Amino acid sequence: MSNSTFTGLPSNLAFSEASPEWMNKADNAWQLIAATLVGLQSVPGLIILYGGAVKKKWAVNSAFMALYAFAAVLVCWVCWGYRLSFGDKLIPIWGKLDVALEQKYLLKQAFSGLFPNATMVFFQFVFAAITLILIAGALLGRMNFHAWMLFVPLWLTFSYTFVAFSIWSLEGWLATMGIIDYSGGYVIHLSSGVAGFTAAYWVGPRLTKDRERFPPNNIILMLAGAGLLWMGWTGFNGGDPYSASTDAALAVLNTHVCAATSLLTWLILDMSFFGKASVIGAVQGMITGLVAITPAAGVVQGWAAIVMGLCSGSIPWFTMMVVHKRSGLLQKVDDTMAVFHTHAIAGCLGGILTGLFADPHLCYLFYGSYKQYVGLFYGFQSGLTHDGIRQIGIQLLGILFVVGVNVIITSIVCLVIQLIVPLRMSDEDMEIGDEAAHGEEAYAIWGQGDRLHENSRFSTYNDLEDPEKKVKAGGNVEMM
What we know:
Layout: H1 3-7, H2 11-18, H3 25-53, H4 59-86, E1 89-91, E2 94-95, H5 103-106, H6 117-137, H7 145-168, H8 173-177, H9 185-203, H10 208-212, H11 219-238, H12 246-274, H13 279-293, H14 302-326, H15 328-332, H16 339-357, H17 360-367, H18 376-382, H19 385-418, H20 427-432, H21 434-438, H22 467-472
Antiparallel strand pairs: 1-2
Helix pairs in contact: 3-4, 3-6, 3-11, 4-6, 4-7, 6-7, 6-9, 7-9, 7-19, 9-16, 9-19, 11-12, 11-13, 12-13, 12-14, 13-14, 13-16, 14-16, 16-19, 18-19
InterPro entries: Ammonium/urea_transptr, Ammonium_transpt, Ammonium_transpt_CS, NH4_transpt_AmtB-like_dom
GO molecular function, one term: ammonium channel activity
Membrane topology: Multi-pass membrane protein
């Protein structure tokens, strides 16, 4: 039964309201698909990647931190986060507080693109969610889950929205200056890398024995998550022109070319210096390539994507394998998943390389205006040297702004949370892991799936350690 039966409207009028003249159905469909692909990077992509990449005792906690963040961000996003990030300007770095829940607002045309606000709200949500989940990667293996529950809405509200409005909102101060951040090299990756590193400093390190030895519990599972992350990047970068356009297609191809080049570069360096091809290293190279191309995906040519892949597979490798081991500060901060190197360093690198390689014609396809979007190399070539230097200056200014905001706000958020609940788990609970945090384990390998931890104060078997007692209690005695 059609809606017109209930409203009393003619069916053709109801249809026109559902498909207004300004809406492009193909663009709307692509945008919803792209948003879903980005969502799959988090749920289940990063859930699986984190769950497989940590010690067995942390698999549930690590995956659950990601799942919680995804849900919490969505509720905060529609209640206040979206309008703070993309609403009417309050100040040059922040929008006006409002909700994104009303039908009257959601069915209107979005600030950009030929689709409704409802589509834009969902698309921008999955970017906000993955940013928080990436931050979680730096904190795995010791953060108090209750503290994480507070961290997510506070950081989203007072850090992410500042940066998103400044760079992506049409009225943001860096956006009006002409910064190029095609799909989140600054807003998402640089922010998450810096915020994760800063939060890791305040939370403190894992137990010494966990820092010294922290083997993945399931590398194949980790690879499955990494694969979802890679393929999901099709929507991550392909969705940002806000249309099913030629620029979207170019962005997708450049994304995968850069990721593959970066992976191979990292792999060759691992084999050259350590003698073995590391699966974990290959995944890190893949991620740095995806991150580096993100601010540039649709505004650089294919040869530039390859050059960026060579840089993203080598420079973060050098900072992680050489600089990190020689730096007292980097050694002091326990960044579990090396988010600082794979996202902050790679994000900075991508932003700077964008300032070098941005093609004015491709920038026109993306922005719809030439303005002064000119990569430095093209500035030299076309006699627009001043514009090229200006672009590099804006890209560097953006880096300084994002780093400053995230160090300051993340520190304040952590200090406020510390007044309410401890930021980290107790040493006793960290010895145990998942069962202490959630009363659950990732892998039940005893008997018929029952847990058996004789030394765990959380075990349901503590009172039945004697096999004879188990039989009297009606339990089965398994022969191991």
